[in-house]
Each structure stands twice: as structure tokens, then as C-alpha cells.
Amino acid sequence: MARFPEAEKKLLNVKICMKCKARNSVRADRCRKCGYTGLRMKSKMSKAGKG
To answer: Which residue pairs, CB below 8 angstroms and at least 24 apart, start in 18-27?
Structure first.
């Protein structure tokens, strides 16, 4: 998790392209780099906490 809520919002509030892994804006409906329409929200859970 980020140290400040503002930083966390900036870092985690993005969409990720499932084809080329590019970061896109939340309003995007297709990737800015490759044009792929398969976008997902960036995961909010940290990987460090997993068992």
C-alpha cells in the first residue's frame, strides 16, 4: 500500500492492457499502445501479503 491516500489513488486507479501490459487511464475503452479492448482494473491488493 502507498504511504498517502493521494499517492495510492494515483498509482492504483488505472487500467492495464491484458495483451501488452500498458497502463491506461480509467476512462479508456481500448489500449493506447496496441488498440486491444481487453482492459482490466489494476489490482488493489498487494502481492506481499499473500502466503
So the answer is: none
Angle at the Cα of 20 (from 19 to 22), degrees rounded to 5? 120
C-alpha cell at 15: 487500467
Give Dmax (Cα) for the chain.
36
Are 40 and 16 spatial neighbours (Cβ–Cβ below 8 Å)? Answer: yes
Question: Which helix (DSSP H) or strand (DSSP E) does residue 9 occupy?
Answer: helix 5-12
Q: What pLDDT score does 51 carry? A: 54
pLDDT digits (tens, 9 = 90+) for 9-38: 889 999 999 999 999 999 999 999 999 999
Among 24, 29, 27, CA closest to 42: 24
Question: In which element (H, E) is residue 5 found?
Answer: helix 5-12
